[in-house]
């Protein structure tokens, strides 16, 4: 590994800092047969950071920055290099191969015309690229199961890859005004985000064994696999602006704010009010604090919003976060804090096997389809994702903390968290008979119209049938059981006398 860092003051108001790391895989050991396991993964990793800061004068400053990483993790060599007869017996670790890179470049300009007024402008571009691959491995049973197991073992039937990239362009401008010796602060600003996402699947390898070709053709016939191989490019934009007022005087803090967000794919504006407060009792060294706020976020995964394999009409996800707590300081450097919280979630994106785009482009086509009249329908497909999922989380945290001492000594914290998180997919759960009836209707008839309400899917088919599916799924644990969590951190500091 090579690691370097340089900081240089070019002048009184201009400085430059550069750092970088590079990990070199040991290819020499990899060339010696059987010394290192053939499929041992090695990492070829590098990163860098670059920054220039220029204080032009007392009112203007500019910062240029750039940082990025490149991560490539792969096996030492292929088996065929040393054992040709096992050419077809490859690693089953294709999914563990890592090949990705990331880079962000940005510029920040700060303008302070007066001591109480400042304006900060940020412009940046972030680029991420990742190449993945997955293989299917099978036993060739054409010569018998025993021969397949002992003679040849697992053989690669196919390898499919996917190249994914995301290009984010970001602009933000924020102005801050301080009044009455910074007792009262006003902040206002706006952001613009434009994301260009691409994915393009590819066929890397196909085994021409007739038995394996059957499986490969079945995999390639899957709609999601087919859509991935066709690829897609999505551009979505977000606009946001906010204002905030903060009052801070003698331990009394009150912050009021509001934010507006717009997402172009769903063509919707959302308003997010927010509140935060804190009250310190100096006589007892006790602080009460809390807050609540609403937040909106556009779907980020390109597979969710892709026109080929997702639903480009997805709405923004919504959440409400609330907390309240008390902190008590004692002795000279200790504190104990108890904080409770509750979060609610709505319009979360979930995998949906029941949502379709209506094949009737308008109400006239719907009527024509029901009456078996000749008309032109739009292409029908499953949209795969919807905003049906909802959920909540709640809990509390108890923390004891010791501050960093002025001289030598230890400091740290220990905390206990009790929490519960659940989600409801709000999807129909059908028994075998109901599922068979639904699949036959969806397969053999065109969905002329679909209504998606809070509790039901209502489908109208071209044969006149009306199907009503109730969203009867139940709440489930969202993740692994993390009801009880105990964490601690302890450090020491030493200062010579």
UniProtKB/TrEMBL annotation:
This is TonB-dependent receptor. One of its GO terms (cellular component) is cell outer membrane. One of its GO terms (biological process) is siderophore transmembrane transport. The lineage of its organism: Bacteria, Pseudomonadati, Spirochaetota, Spirochaetia, Leptospirales. PANTHER family: HEMOGLOBIN AND HEMOGLOBIN-HAPTOGLOBIN-BINDING PROTEIN 1-RELATED, TONB-DEPENDENT OUTER MEMBRANE RECEPTOR. Keywords: Receptor, Signal. GO terms for molecular function: siderophore uptake transmembrane transporter activity. The keyword Nucleotidyltransferase does not apply.
């Amino acid at each position: 590994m090579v690691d370097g860092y340089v900081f240089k003051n070019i002048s009184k108001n201009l400085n430059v800092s550069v750092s970088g790391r590079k990990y070199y895989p040991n290819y020499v050991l990899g060339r010696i047969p059987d010394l290192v396991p053939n499929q041992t993964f090695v990492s070829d990793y590098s990163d860098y950071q670059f920054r220039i800061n220029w204080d032009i004068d007392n009112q203007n400053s500019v910062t240029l920055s750039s940082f990025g990483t490149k991560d490539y993790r792969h096996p030492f060599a292929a088996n065929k290099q040393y054992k040709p007869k096992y050419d077809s017996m490859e690693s089953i670790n294709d999914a563990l191969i890592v090949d990705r890179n990331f880079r962000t470049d940005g510029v920040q300009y700060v303008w302070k015309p007066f001591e109480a007024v400042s304006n900060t402008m940020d412009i940046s571009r972030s680029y991420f690229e990742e190449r993945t691959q997955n293989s299917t491995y099978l036993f060739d049973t054409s010569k018998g199961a025993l021969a397949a197991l002992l003679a040849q073992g697992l053989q690669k039937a196919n390898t499919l890859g996917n190249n994914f990239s995301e290009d984010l362009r970001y602009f933000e401008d924020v102005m801050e005004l301080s009044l009455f010796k910074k007792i009262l602060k006003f902040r206002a600003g706006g952001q613009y985000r434009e994301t260009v996402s691409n994915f393009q699947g590819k066929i890397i390898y196909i085994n021409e064994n007739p038995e394996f070709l059957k499986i490969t053709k079945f995999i390639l016939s899957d709609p999601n696999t087919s859509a991935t191989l066709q690829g897609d490019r999505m551009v979505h934009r977000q606009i946001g602006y906010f204002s905030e007022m903060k009052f801070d005087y003698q331990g009394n803090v009150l912050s009021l704010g509001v934010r507006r967000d717009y997402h172009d794919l769903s063509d919707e504006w959302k308003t997010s009010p927010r509140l935060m407060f804190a009250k310190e009792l100096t006589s007892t060294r006790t602080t009460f604090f809390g807050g609540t706020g609403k937040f909106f976020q556009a779907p980020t995964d390109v597979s969710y919003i892709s026109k080929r394999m997702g639903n480009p009409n997805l709405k923004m996800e919504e959440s409400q976060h609330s907390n309240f707590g008390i902190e008590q300081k004692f002795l000279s450097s200790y504190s104990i804090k108890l904080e409770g919280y509750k979060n609610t979630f709505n319009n979360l994106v979930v995998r949906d096997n029941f949502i379709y785009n209506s094949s009737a482009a308008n109400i006239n086509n719907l009527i024509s389809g029901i009456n078996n009249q000749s008309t032109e329908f739009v292409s029908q497909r499953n949209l795969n994702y919807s905003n049906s999922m909802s959920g909540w989380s709640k809990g509390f945290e108890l923390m004891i903390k010791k501050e960093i001492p002025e001289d030598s000594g230890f400091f740290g914290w220990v905390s206990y968290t009790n929490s519960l998180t659940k989600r409801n997919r709000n999807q129909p759960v059908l028994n075998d008979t109901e599922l068979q009836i639904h699949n036959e209707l969806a397969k053999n008839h065109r969905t002329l119209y679909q209504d998606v309400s809070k509790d039901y899917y209502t489908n109208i088919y071209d044969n006149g049938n009306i199907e009503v599916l109730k969203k009867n799924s139940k709440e489930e644990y969202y993740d692994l059981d993390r009801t009880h969590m105990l964490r601690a951190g302890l450090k020491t500091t030493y200062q010579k006398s």
